[in-house]
UniProtKB/TrEMBL annotation:
Protein name: Pseudouridine synthase
Record EC number: 5.4.99.-
Organism taxonomic ancestry: Bacteria, Bacillati, Bacillota, Clostridia, Eubacteriales
Broad class of enzyme this protein falls into: isomerase
Name of a matching Pfam family: S4
Domain of life: Bacteria
Family: Belongs to the pseudouridine synthase RsuA family.
Organism: Ruminococcus gauvreauii
Limits of the RNA-binding S4 domain: 11-73
Stored InterPro entries: PsdUridine_s_RsuA/RluB/E/F_cat, PsdUridine_synth_cat_dom_sf, PsdUridine_synth_RsuA/RluA, PsdUridine_synth_RsuA/RluB/E/F, PsdUridine_synth_RsuA/RluB_CS, RsuA_PseudoU_synthase, S4_RNA-bd, S4_RNA-bd_sf
Length: 249
C-alpha cells in the first residue's frame, strides 16, 4: 500500500503563494506563467504544481517565500472599521493587515463598528473556536465612558445578570467604577459575546455607552504602545499562553 502521509501535506503552488500573502490566486498564476516563481532553483511548471511546505525552496523574483502554517496578530481596531474579512462598503480589519497579507486571515469575533480596541487576527480556526465558544466563558474586559452616574446598585445588577431582551439573563459581569459623574468611566468584564451586549446592558440600567474600547480577551491584553489601526505579531509567549489555556486547557 502506498504511503499517503506526504500526499496529505502537499498543496498547489498557487495556493501556497496566496496563503503566504504574495498575491491573489490569479496574480500568482500570472507570476508563475511569467517564470518569476522557482521551486528548488527551477522555474515552476504551473500553478497546479504540488509542493510540500518546508521541504522545497520556493522563490518569487529571487526572494525566498517560507511557509508559516499559523500566524497570530494583535490589532488595535479603530472606530469606523468593520470586523470582517470583506465588506462591500466599509474598510475591514483585514484591510489594515498590510505587511502580512496572506489570504486565510480572519478576525476572532467582532467588535462593533464604533468600538475600538483589541482584536485577534489569525488563521487558526481551532483557537478561534475555543475563544468564541459560549461554553468556554472567556473573559473580555472593556473600558467605557457612560452617559449617567454609574452606582454601586449598577455594580450589583451587573453581577446578578441583566434582562437585555433575550431568553436568558446575561451571565454575571464584573463592573468596576473608575469615575462616577455625568459622564462615568468604568471597566467591565463579560464572559459571553451577545449582540451589542455591553450597550444593551447599560441601556437596561437606563444609561448609554458613549465610548467603548476592548482591553483584553482571555490571556491576551492590548499592547499600550499600539495606536488605533496598528498591529503586531504576537510574541511566542503570548501565543503559547493562548493555546495552552484556551485550546489545551
Amino acid at each position: 500500500m502506498a504511503d499517503r502521509s506526504n500526499e496529505k501535506k502537499m498543496m498547489r503552488l498557487d495556493r501556497y503563494l496566496a496563503e503566504m500573502g504574495i498575491g491573489s490566486r490569479s496574480s500568482v498564476k500570472e507570476m508563475i506563467r511569467k517564470k518569476q516563481v522557482c521551486v528548488d532553483g527551477a522555474a515552476a511548471c504551473g500553478p497546479e504544481q504540488k509542493v510540500c511546505p518546508g521541504k522545497e525552496c520556493i522563490t518569487v523574483s529571487g526572494r525566498r517565500v517560507d511557509f508559516v502554517s499559523k500566524e497570530y496578530f494583535m490589532l488595535y481596531k479603530p472606530a469606523g472599521v468593520v470586523s470582517a474579512v470583506k465588506d462591500a462598503k466599509d474598510r475591514t480589519v483585514i484591510d489594515l493587515i498590510t505587511e502580512h497579507k496572506r489570504c486565510d486571515l480572519f478576525p476572532v469575533g467582532r467588535l462593533d463598528k464604533d468600538t475600538e480596541g483589541l482584536l485577534l487576527i489569525t488563521n487558526d480556526g481551532v483557537l478561534a473556536h475555543e475563544l468564541l465558544s459560549p461554553k468556554k466563558h472567556v473573559d473580555k474586559t472593556y473600558y467605557a465612558r457612560i452617559a449617567g452616574i454609574v452606582t454601586d446598585e449598577d455594580v450589583r445588577c451587573f453581577q446578578e445578570g441583566l434582562d437585555i431582551g433575550d431568553e436568558k439573563l446575561t451571565l454575571p459581569a464584573e463592573l468596576t467604577i473608575r469615575k462616577s459623574g455625568a459622564v462615568s468611566e468604568v471597566e467591565i468584564t463579560v464572559r459571553e459575546g451577545r449582540f451589542h451586549q455591553i450597550k444593551r446592558m447599560f441601556e437596561a440600567v437606563d444609561k448609554r455607552v458613549l465610548y467603548l474600547k476592548r482591553l483584553s480577551m482571555g490571556t491576551l491584553t492590548l499592547d499600550e504602545t499600539l495606536r488605533p489601526g496598528e498591529y503586531r505579531a504576537l510574541t511566542s509567549e503570548e501565543t503559547e499562553r493562548l493555546v495552552k489555556i484556551h485550546v489545551k486547557g
